[in-house]
């Protein structure tokens, strides 16, 4: 170690390279996939000098990247994946061709759901957006079949035990009734699969349309389906604060 060099823990360095979150980076280390200056390093506390050390993951050199944070309106009937789906369904990848960086969705929306997805190459922030421990509220507007009655709403606010355990929304509000449908605003800070649909169907209603309108302080705003925009400095500051990260 030389005087003056700023050393960074290897798991943090890997997350700075947009590879993965710090926690997942530790798994890569333990799997022996990470080399520093040609030698496999499995020690979790290992520190590197970003100016001088050569770090490789699976034999490929990695370097810190500039982070980018994008708010994207996923349209209905697109998969929230960047991979190639086996069944030929459309994916969000084709709507993000103008973005040169490799950004990943921080969380998912179902194929037939729409609304706000955050895309970033900041693995640590993405991890915190998705992990329930950080309690980042996600707000959904949900059209459900039938008139949701006051008593049902009251029960909804108390939570429900689903097949994979108890869940409780942070908030449920009736926005309006329209013929035999109801529009609800539902806020959850967890991202278990189909959580909103399963929760609503527990109370005997079926989701007709699901749209995520906010993730923490970031709102969908006037984005149209398929459009994206970079987060403003203020949005990013607010998001980082909400996730317990320094602004
Ligand atoms: N809950 C769901 O049921 N689906 C989503 O896409 C998101 C939350």
Task: Examine the coordinates and then state which fold CATH places here, giving the name of the CATH topology of the largest domain.
Answer: Alpha-Beta Plaits
Which class of the largest domain in CATH terms?
Alpha Beta
Calculate the mean pLDDT score and round it: 93
Give the biggest beta sheet.
Answer: 9 strands, mixed
What is the annotated CATH architecture of the largest domain?
A: 2-Layer Sandwich
Q: CATH H-level name of the largest domain... which superfamily?
A: Pseudouridine synthase I, catalytic domain, N-terminal subdomain
Helix-strand sequence: EHHEEEEEEEEHEHEEEEHEEEH
Q: What's the number of extended β-strand segments? A: 17
Separate helix tally: 6
Q: How many distinct folded domains?
A: 3
Give me the Rg, rounded: 21 Å
Question: Structural class, judged by helices and strands?
Answer: alpha+beta
Range of helix content: 10-25%
Low-confidence stretches: none
Strand content: 25-35%
Shape: elongated
What's the end-to-end separation, in Å?
30 Å
Query: Which small-molecule species are bound to the chains here?
Result: uracil
Question: In summary, what is this structure?
Answer:
The protein has helices at residues 10-16, 22-30, 123-130, 150-157, 195-202, 233-242, and strands spanning 8-9, 34-36, 39-40, 47-48, 55-57, 60-61, 69-74, 104-105, 114-120, 138-145, 160-162, 165-167, 171-178, 181-188, 207-215, 218-219, 228-230.
Keywords summarizing the entry:
17 strands; alpha+beta; binds uracil; four-stranded antiparallel sheet; nine-stranded mixed sheet; Alpha-Beta Plaits; 247 residues
């Amino acid at each position: 170690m030389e005087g003056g060099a700023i050393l960074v823990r290897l798991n943090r360095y890997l997350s700075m390279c947009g590879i993965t979150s710090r926690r997942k980076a530790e798994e890569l280390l333990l799997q022996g996939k990470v080399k520093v200056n040609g030698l496999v390093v499995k020690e979790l506390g290992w520190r590197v000098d970003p100016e001088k050390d050569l770090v490789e993951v699976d034999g490929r050199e990695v370097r810190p990247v500039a982070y980018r944070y994008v708010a994207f309106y996923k349209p209905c009937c697109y998969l929230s994946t960047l991979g190639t789906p086996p069944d030929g369904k459309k994916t969000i990848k084709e709507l993000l061709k103008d973005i040169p960086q490799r950004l990943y969705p921080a969380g998912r929306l179902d194929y037939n759901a729409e609304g706000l997805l955050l895309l970033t190459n900041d693995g640590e922030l993405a991890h915190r957006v998705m992990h329930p421990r950080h309690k980042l509220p996600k707000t959904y507007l949900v059209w459900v079949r039938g008139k949701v009655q006051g008593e049902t709403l009251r029960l909804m606010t108390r939570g429900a035990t689903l097949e994979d355990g108890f869940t409780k929304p942070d908030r449920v509000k009736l926005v309006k009734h329209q013929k035999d449908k109801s529009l609800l605003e539902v806020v959850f800070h967890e991202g278990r699969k189909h959580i909103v649909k399963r929760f609503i169907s527990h109370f005997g209603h079926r989701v007709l349309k699901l749209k995520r309108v906010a993730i923490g302080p970031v709102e969908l705003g006037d984005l149209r389906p398929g459009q994206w925009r970079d987060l403003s400095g203020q949005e990013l500051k607010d998001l980082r604060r909400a996730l317990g990260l320094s602004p």
